[in-house]
Design a protein that fits this description.
The protein is of the alpha/beta class. It has one domain: Peptidase S8/S53 domain (Rossmann fold), CATH 3.40.50.200. It has 9 helices and 14 strands. Strands 1, 2, 3, 4, 6, 8, 9 and 10 form an 8-stranded mixed sheet that branches. It has a two-stranded antiparallel ribbon with strand order 5-7. The radius of gyration is 19 Å and the shape is globular. The chain starts with 7 loop residues before the first helix and ends in a 23-residue tail after the last helix. This is Peptidase S8/S53 domain-containing protein. InterPro entries: Peptidase_S8/S53_dom (IPR000209), Peptidase_S8/S53_dom_sf (IPR036852), Peptidase_S8_Asp-AS (IPR023827), Peptidase_S8_His-AS (IPR022398), Peptidase_S8_Ser-AS (IPR023828), Peptidase_S8_subtilisin-like (IPR050131), Peptidase_S8_subtilisin-rel (IPR015500).
Amino acid sequence: MPLYQMQWALRDVQAPGAWSRGYSGAGVRVAILDSGIDCGNAWLAPNIDFSAAASLVPGEGVCVQPGFYFNHGTHVAGIVAALPSGFGSVGIAPGATLIPVKVLSEFTGSGAFSWVLGGVVYAADEGADVINMSLGAYPMRTSDPDTQAYLLAFGRAAEYARARGAAVIVAAGNDAAQLGAGGDVGVPASAPGMITVSASGPAGWATGNPAYAWLDYLADYSDYGPPIANAGPGGTFWYAYVNPAQVCSIAGITRSCYVFDSVISTIPGGWSWAAGTSMATPAAAAVAALAIQRGRMTTGANLSPQGLANFRKTQVDFVRNTLQTSSDDRGPRGRDPYFGYGRVNADNASNVFYHAPRVSPAPTPLTPPYAL
């Protein structure tokens, strides 16, 4: 798989370790609340539950227009569950079932809060185990009554999902803003009940320079602050500030070196790169899917409908706790406002024998040494 060679994010979260243990996310349902999906995509279609797919955007269907172009929802879905192929990229949980729920217009990329809230309720009612929301508004003032109303509404939606066993994982945002400082909060990132994800990534990875081998710098655009629960590989633009003209080649594909620091995934008609907390969030959702599969199999919950029903009663707490204890501590020791409890790790999350270290490792760098 030539594009697999460009997927630094898979190695960062150690997805192959989970796969070697037999975990692929099989049996776990991940709802993608986004701008629709390429329903004819050969690397996604076998994993899509078309009977549950829906659009809450007036006048638009869940399936996006055919062609070769970037579609946000299709890219996000591929990070979770793209199937392996002879050429393309592969998802972190390639056996998971996808439930596309369109809550953003495929043409404008925006949507009403009511559509998103309705999407959470719909996905929970459709039996989603994980709800991925790679979306959010610009930071909003805490003092604004509308902000408080939105936070309350999203908190209630998360609680509704929780009662049905669905963990809501949401993007922190791409404004390089400190959420919770100066009166600014993220919606829905700062709402109660959310598992909020910041973005990390490399800075010159494709150059092959050992000095640029670190994969877990805080992304230059990522929002941060108390709401952050975990970080995920979302890609960075750090190297573009240093040498935007430098060219690198991987698997016969040549681009500006900084391009390879983004995340490659599916789009209508093929694959493309993108970077953002939108890309970090489905990585965390996919790791959650692997953890759920492991939890069900090791407890025997997958052997009967009643067992699954019982497991789902505490499934959200299981996901939250697993992501907290299995992640790789990054940034300052312990939980911090940049990486939360750490960057998600698929290998640890799917390993029943893994135990979090008693002592956190030494602090790791937030930004590359050449950061402005």
